[in-house]
Amino acid sequence: MRHCYCTTVWKEPYIKRSSPKSQCFLFFQARPSVELVHPRSYSLIMTRLWMFRYGCGFVRFTHHNSAVLYASKAHYDDSIRYLSVHDNRYLRYFKGHRHRVCCLALSPINDTFISAAKDDTVRLWDLKSNQCAGLLRTKGIPQVAFDPSGVCFGVAYSEAKSYKHHVKLFDARRFEEGPFISVSLPMTGSADSEIAQLKFSPNTKHMLLSTYDGSVMLLDAFDGKKIRDLTGIVNTQKSELECSFSPDGEFICAGSEDGRVLIWQTETGRVVHELGGHAFPVSCAAFNPRYLQMASACQNVVLWLPDST
After folding, report:
1. Which residue among 27, 83, 147, 194 has its CA within the 20 to 30 Å range from the CA of 19?
2. Average pLDDT, rounded, for the chain
3. SS in 3 state form for 25-56?
4. What pTM was estimated for this model as a whole?
């Protein structure tokens, strides 16, 4: 693969793949601001949105082209905000968490979304109401994700006391009945190795579970059992390095602390390609869901295209 575009940003950039109805990447920068960039023209198509007062921890596209969800990064405010990109106006506030929000996941079929925070709680919301629709308590800092069908969602957390990672799958329509699948996986690193990310593959066959010590595990989405470990990532500083499935679910990409971007084949777990060029830890790598393209970010955001050969 070859890089086709590179731009310098401020520290801790965040890349969110295209919204369901648009063709934009969402770049998060810790300056803090949000930028919308077209993946083919590489130019800004919307005004940069500044968020000096509350900061910006996580950004998610909604099903509405002109609105996003984002979590505050300020230590004195743990609210989630529903922001109109058109006029930079807050449409709604979602309050309830008592510590910083560490994950947001939007349902692919409706306006339901889930938030997870460092107060060891998971909350369910609807964009049409600022009232919390459900509350789940965990024994560690959770990460959440919806499956592509929107029928179920997963909750993953690490429990230092039992030295295990826990993955629980809930029916989104009857979450109050508890998980229909609950799996515990032994930790492979230190006891403080927390879950960094949980993701479902687009073909609904697999889940990705990554930790802050550089472990990446491929799980079966039907029973939660571990299929294999994906090796090669360096993460001695325990940074948050995001992983991503390709749109067909056949490949997985992830950044590494040493500036590499690794691409694995899902079926075999074999590293099929390594991309270099980053001078700092690659905090995020993501495939474009529409075009044959990939993006990676450290202090620079780089867009990649496959070689013509």
Report:
1. 194
2. 83
3. EEEEECCCEEEEECCCCCCECCCCEECCCCCC
4. 0.85
Distance in angstroms (rounded) separating the CA atoms of residues 216 and 213: 9
42-46, 120-124, 190-194: the lowest-pLDDT one:
42-46
177 has a pLDDT exceeding 80? yes
In whole angstroms, what is the distance from residue 174 CA to residue 158 CA?
A: 24
Give the phi and the psi of residue 47 in degrees, each rounded to 5: -65, 140
* pLDDT at residue 127, as a whole number: 95
Quote the CA–CA distance of 285 and 244 in Å, as a whole number: 7
DSSP state of 273: E
Joined together, the tokens standing for residue 202 give: 């687009």
pLDDT tens-digit series, residues 14-48: 445 544 444 555 555 545 555 666 555 555 445 56
Radius of gyration of the chain (CA): 18
Burial class of residue 289, CB neighbours in 10 A (0-12, 13-18, 19+): middle
- Paired tokens of 249: 């679910």
Q: Please state, as a whole number, how many other Cβ atoms lie within 10 Å of the Cβ of residue 197.
A: 20
The beta-strand segments (E) located in 72-186 are 80-84, 89-94, 101-106, 112-117, 121-126, 129-137, 143-146, 152-159, 164-171, 181-186
d(CA 236, CA 176): 38
As a whole number of angstroms, the distance between CA 216 and CA 75 comes to 30
Provide CB contacts within 8 A for 43, sequence distance 6+. Answer: 37
Q: How far apart (Å, rounded) are the C-alpha atoms in residues 35 and 30?
A: 11
- Residues 158 and 103: their CA atoms lie apart, in Å, by 15
